[in-house]
Amino acid sequence: MYRCSDPDRDARGVRLTPRHTTVAAGGVRAPMEPAMCPRGLVHGLLGVAAVLCAAFVAMPAGGQEREIVANQIEVSRDQASLRLEFSDGEHLAITFSGGRASVNGESLGSYQPDGAADREWRGLLSRVLSLSNGPLAEALARWQPDPGLSGAERNLLAAVSGYFAGALGGSVQADARVSDGGGSQELVQAMARSDDKEAFVRALDGIDAGSLTVLVGRDHLVRAGTQVEGGILLVDGELDVRGRVRGDVIVVDGTLAVGSGRIDGEARLVDSRLRGAADGVRGGVADVSERIRAEERRDVERIRAEVQREVVRSLQSSRDGSRFGQRVSRASQFTFDILVTFVVTGLLAWLATGLAGRRVGVVVRAISHQPARSAVVGLAGGFAAGPAYLIGIAVLVATMLGIPLLIAWVPLFPLAVLAAALVGLVGVSEHVGRWVLRRGYRWLNRGDPGQPSYVRLLGLGTMFIPWVAGSWLQVLPLTGWVGSILQAAGTMGFLLALATGFGAVILTRGGVRPTGWAVPYDDFGDDQGGGDRW
Q: What are the strands, taking DSSP E only, across 199-248?
């Protein structure tokens, strides 16, 4: 890769031949001045690439000698690259990767992966894979793209060929030459003078570079009444058109003034300004640098929008995961609370069975014979418990003798209601446990079905199952409504069980006064039609 500088001028302003220096004998020769690489390649580079290639090859062979001391070729599915290292410490690295070609890390242009340009480049690397030093330099300098290629693919490979010819042409007598080497070198110098080479190359898109009049570092006037055949490329100066230009005009790092003149083609500006009106430009005025900046802004906006979408999607996913974790946590906490409630209620049921087994038996038989009546009485008793409590307080407060009884009434009445509800719940759990055992689940026989405590604990646990199952169904996204319904049904069933048991306790006066259908605990047996003795 080489940097082209402006040639020296004499006192008359005549352009002199570029100077070269030789530092060693033998090896690969190349021009002394390194050329700046363009950062991008655009459609229509065919003409300028061919001229650049020819211009470099046409440079005198008496330049600085450089020998290729190392080369590295890497080819994979997505990348194909060639790196050359020279004896003077410089290097040339050309990479085709992911649809983008680059020279020494600077963007050269784009290509279609597995397209014609990609296949041509990989074919070249496969042919020079076994070469090194002089034979490698000769093969690369002589390489030219397939003439059958066209458009952007041809342009890209022509630019690569130009880099090879510029870097290696000093030691290889290539076959290609150009007759107007001075004009070609002018174009090379114009590109080297531009600060924005990507815009420079973009401005040459679709223009025959060989037809351009190249002006570098000076002002130029197209006088009125005169005309210029072909286009004009001016770099670092002012172009004042008062006559006629029969082609396109490109101004780089300068100023364009049309005035009363006429431009038959298009006026393209690269980091330049237009002075005056543009009525005389038939093809219109295009600010190439602004176009590139607009494209870059659109790319930035597109990338920003994509990043924002990814961030939102990530946050949404994180939120969804957090919500799922919260649902799992709530279900786990609820399950733990139900387990604690079951343990406490089970202990109370076990105490009730041990301390008041006969009374619990009478309540169980009352529930068995008339569950509907027990439920109605229980509901009525539940609604009446609150008013009865308040009325009792009022009556006791109204009488002087009732004040001492008030001290006992306030705490004992709620405790008595709770105890009645507990005994009733134990009685209902007895029937629920018997019903579960009759389902024939063998694993339930690991306990003793003949033990009242086991049967009642089994029934009590069964009544808690809908709540637990419903809470875990609500964790899943599609079954949450099923879990809500299941929990609601479990709540209604539990309240109905409390009302039924509470009503049976009221009907049997706490299991003390059995009716004709609520026989004493000791009389239960198979001959009474009430089931097994517990």
A: 212-216, 220-222, 227-229, 231-235, 238-241, 244-246
- Poorest-pLDDT segment among 190-204, 327-341, 474-488: 190-204
CA dist., res. 128 & res. 133, Å (int): 11
Q: How far is it, in rounded angstroms, from Cα 240 to Cα 260?
A: 10
Q: Which residues of 260-295 are buried (b: 16+ CB within 10 A; e: fewer)?
A: ebbbbbbbbbbbbebeeeeebbeeeebbbbeebeee
**pLDDT, tens digit (0-9, with 9 covering 90-100), for 115-164:** 888 999 999 999 998 888 888 888 888 888 887 776 677 778 877 887 78
pLDDT at 527 over 50: no
Which residue is listed with tokens 């198979």?
A: 526
Rounded to whole angstroms, the Cα distance separating 466 from 474 reads 12
* Diameter over CA atoms, the chain: 140
The rounded distance, in Å, linking the Cα atoms of 67 and 529 is: 114
Angle at 491 between CA 518 and CA 418, to 5 degrees: 50
Q: Name every residue whose Cβ is closer than 8 Å to that of residue 413 and which is 6 or more positions away in sequence.
A: 388, 389, 392
Contacts of 14 (CB under 8 A, 6+ apart): none
The answer to whether the predicted template modeling score (pTM) of the entire model surpasses 0.70 is: no
Please give the full DSSP string across 477-493, using - where no structure is assigned: SSSHHHHHHHHHHHHHH
Q: Which is it for strands 100-103 and 91-97: parallel, antiparallel or unpaired?
A: antiparallel
Average pLDDT of the residues of the chain? 77
Element (H, E) at 71: strand 68-75
Please state, in angstroms and as integers, the Cα–Cα distance from residue 383 to each residue in 99, 503, 510, following that order: 81, 12, 18
Give pLDDT tens digits for 48-57. Answer: 444 443 344 3
> Is pLDDT of 181 > 90?
no
Beta strands in 253-299 (DSSP E): 255-257, 262-263, 267-270, 273-275, 285-287
Between CA 141 and CA 110 the distance in angstroms is 23
Distance of CA 191 to the CA centre of its chain: 40
Res. 515 pLDDT band, cuts 50 70 90: low
What φ, ψ does residue 139 adopt, rounded to 5°? -65, -40
DSSP string, 366-435: HHHH-HHHHHHHHHHHHHHHHHHHHHHHHHHHHSTTHHHHHHHHHHHHHHHHHHHHHHHHHHHHHHHHHH
Residue written as tokens 């880099």? 163
Q: Residues with Cβ < 8 Å from 363, sequence gap 6 or more?
A: 423, 424, 426, 427, 501, 504, 505, 508, 511, 518
pLDDT of residue 93: 92
Write the DSSP symbol of residue 509: T
Contact 3, 162 (CB under 8 A): no
Q: Which of 96-110, 213-227, 254-268 has the lowest mean pLDDT?
A: 96-110
